[in-house]
Specification:
The complex is a heterodimer of chains A (375) and B (66).
Chain A: H1 9-23, E1 27-39, E2 43-49, E3 54-60, E4 73-83, E5 87-97, H2 100-116, E6 134-139, H3 144-156, E7 161-166, H4 174-186, E8 194-199, H5 204-207, H6 213-220, E9 226-230, H7 238-242, E10 245-246, H8 250-257, H9 261-321, H10 324-329, E11 334-337, E12 340-341, E13 353-357, E14 362-366
Parallel strand pairs in A: 3-5, 6-7, 6-8, 8-9, 9-10
Antiparallel strand pairs in A: 1-2, 1-4, 2-3, 4-5, 11-12, 11-13, 13-14
Helix pairs in contact in A: 3-8, 4-6
Chain B: H1 8-21, H2 29-52, E1 56-61
Helix pairs in contact in B: 1-2
Classes of the chains: A alpha/beta (375), B mainly alpha (66).
Chain lengths: 375, 66
């Protein structure tokens, strides 16, 4: 007994922690959540239990996948430690709800919380540029979702620059990677036109990363407009609710994002025909206008010519009316005394010689008598 | 990323604007001819782009936390 190793308490705790670090540096434990509580909005304490045992756990709010309730089934990962004062606990770094019931319940709690904050409000939704020139794509590079998206995008549209961020789309590290990729896209000096987050179909467990608070908040706070398609049409993740636009599948995301190139080409051909037609219409309009002007000029000219003709006739008639020869023809005579026209009997006296111009010939006469008119 | 990337949306809007201007009943023939030439040039550029441009993919990896 004297050879037995005797530790001081602090030494024993340190020795045990050293042993734990070597033997179990990082463990994952699955069990039912109980005694869940959050202290000072930062520290999280809970127990993980099954029918026979309970493990005390310690974590921070940053590791929470969303709101949790006692009774939920969780898979937690972290490092076991013996605290000098508070005994044994698991220092938890990741918490993942497991089992359809728990995932659904966790998603419902988180959805209610985020909805109350307005993350899913319709007025927050922005329209996506159509078509975009630069696309950031967040998904697993080896996935069918990635292959489908690239294939359909290439078939539909050209000239896009796609920045692909290769991330895990399931498992405990998926939320962190997806959120980091979204942050990286938003921190680019020249952000892309749209951020696309996609994942193919899977079980509720497989899709759980896209209903975590971290990923949902990352999508909601993205300054780059977002398009999210997770799973099949019937699967609706919280990230999709927070996105500016949701697509039912990754293939549908590619279709929503891009126009059909063939339809756009047909529209360009139509535009060229329309350009030709419109130019011809302009020329035709001008020809019609010119013809009208020509006709109008002709009419005006005719009218002016006719008017001038009438004026000429009138002038001629007027001139003729004043022609003394015509008066002489009608029997009148023009009397002159020494080349001055005599208009009054008072202008002559008896004995004056006067000339009398008739229509034909001139008479020279002597005034024999001067009388007043009417006498 | 390339800064001189063809801006389809901008070019399509320019073409639409030219088609609208050509509908002006008071437009003069010389102006209409200039617009027609510009419109055909844009339409040809869009056509070339839609037939010849390719999509490009650049891969980025995200550091995996332990």
């Amino acid at each position: 007994m004297n050879n037995d190793l005797v530790f001081g308490v602090s030494d024993f705790v340190a020795y045990l922690n050293q042993t734990l670090e070597i033997a179990y540096p990082y463990v994952t434990v699955e069990g039912e959540l109980s005694n869940f509580r959050v202290s000072k909005n930062r520290w999280v304490y809970f127990d993980l239990k099954d029918e026979a045992a309970t493990v005390r756990c310690f974590s921070t709010v940053y590791a929470l996948p969303g709101p949790l309730e006692d009774g939920m089934r969780l898979k937690v990962s972290g490092s076991p430690r013996l605290h000098p004062l508070y005994n044994f606990s698991l220092n938890v770094q990741t918490i993942v709800p497991v089992g359809e019931g728990t995932i659904k319940k966790a998603a419902e709690l988180l959805a209610a919380k985020l909805e109350a904050e307005g993350l899913f409000d319709a007025e927050r939704k922005r329209s996506l540029p159509y078509p975009p020139q630069r696309v950031a794509l967040v998904t697993a590079g080896s996935s069918a979702a990635y292959a489908d998206f690239i294939k359909i995008t290439n078939a539909r549209w050209r000239g896009m620059s796609i920045e692909h961020y290769d991330v895990l789309v399931q498992g405990e590290h998926a939320p962190t990677q997806i959120a980091q990729a979204i942050a990286a896209v938003n921190n680019l000096a020249e952000p892309p036109d749209v951020l696309v987050v996609i994942r193919g179909g899977g079980s509720a467990d497989d899709l759980a990363a896209f209903s975590t608070e971290r990923v949902t908040r990352a999508v909601a706070s993205s300054r780059v407009p977002t398009l999210v398609a997770i799973g099949h049409e019937i699967d609706i993740s919280l990230a999709e609710l927070a996105a500016d636009q949701r697509a039912s599948t990754p293939s549908n995301a590619a279709e929503l994002l891009t126009p059909d190139r063939q339809i756009s080409l047909a529209a360009v051909y139509d535009a060229k025909v329309l350009l030709q037609q419109q130019l011809e219409q302009v020329v035709t309009r001008k020809q019609v206008w010119l013809d009208g002007m020509r006709t109008e000029l002709g009419t005006l000219w005719s009218r002016a010519f006719s008017y001038a003709g009438h004026r000429l006739v009138s002038a001629r008639q007027l001139l003729e009316a004043y022609n003394p020869q015509l008066a002489l023809e009608r029997g009148y005579a023009l009397v002159r005394k020494q080349d001055t026209v005599v208009r009054s009997a008072e202008e002559v006296i008896t004995g004056d010689l006067i000339s009398i111009e008739l229509a034909k010939g001139i008479l020279v006469a002597e005034v024999r008598q001067v009388q007043e008119k009417g006498v | 990323m390339a800064k001189d990337i063809f801006d389809y949306t901008k070019k399509a809007a320019e073409l639409e604007e030219i088609l609208t201007k050509l509908q002006d009943p008071d437009i003069q023939i010389d102006e209409a001819t200039k617009l027609y030439d510009a419109g055909v040039a844009i339409a040809n550029a869009i056509e070339d782009y839609l037939q010849q441009a390719e999509n490009t993919v650049h891969a980025h990896t995200v550091a995996r936390e332990p």
